[in-house]
Amino acid sequence: MLIIRLQRVGKKGQAYFRVVVTEHTKKPKGEALELLGSYDPHQKKLTVKKEKIMAWISKGAQVSPTLNNLMVNYKIWDAPKVQSWRVKISVKTKKAEAAKAKQAPAIVEKIVEAGPQKTEDVQEAVAA
User: Fold this and answer.
1) Coil vs helix vs strand at 54
2) CA atoms of 32 and 24, how far apart (whole Å)
3) Parallel/antiparallel/unpaired status of strands 34-40 and 45-48
4) CA distance 118 to 34
5) Distance separating alpha carbons of residues 5 and 17, to the nearest angstrom
6) What are the structural domains, with CATH classification, of the chain?
7) Taking each helix axis from N to C terminus, what angle separates 91-114 and 119-127, rounded to the nearest 10 degrees?
8) Where does the record place a coiled coil (predicted)?
């Protein structure tokens, strides 16, 4: 599958990106099939060849979420934005969620064993 995405070039601290078409399995800094434009985040300037991008899309290429959102922001095309990143969950958070999941059945058992009671009593059982 082909993908249209950003390829970082430039020195450390001076990022500059090319808009390229490449195979999705290739490394982002690897060989590209075609150069379709550039993005300078320091000057906030996006330059792309919209006709060539549309031609590649018609051939089945996908646009990366980041590039899609950039093109929407710069009003190059009218498409909905896509979530381009995901919050990373730390190992500690995963362990805490697993511990809560193990405790949930015990809490339900306490409530069921207690029978019908006032909501205050149920809240106390949950807190315990």
Assistant:
1) helix
2) 10
3) antiparallel
4) 69
5) 9
6) 2-73 (3.30.1320.10), 91-127 (no CATH)
7) 140
8) none
Task: Give start and end residues of each alpha helix (H) in 2-90.
Answer: 50-58, 65-73
- What per-residue confidence (pLDDT) applies to 92? 78
**Angle at the Cα of 75 from the Cα atoms of 71 and 80, rounded to 5 degrees:** 65
Q: State the pLDDT confidence band at 106, using cuts at 50, 70 and 90.
A: low
pLDDT of 23-78, one tens digit each? 999 888 889 999 999 999 999 999 999 999 999 999 999 999 999 999 999 999 88
Indicate the pTM of the whole model: 0.66
CB 71 within 8 A of CB 49: no
Alpha-carbon distance of 106 to 126, in angstroms, equals 9
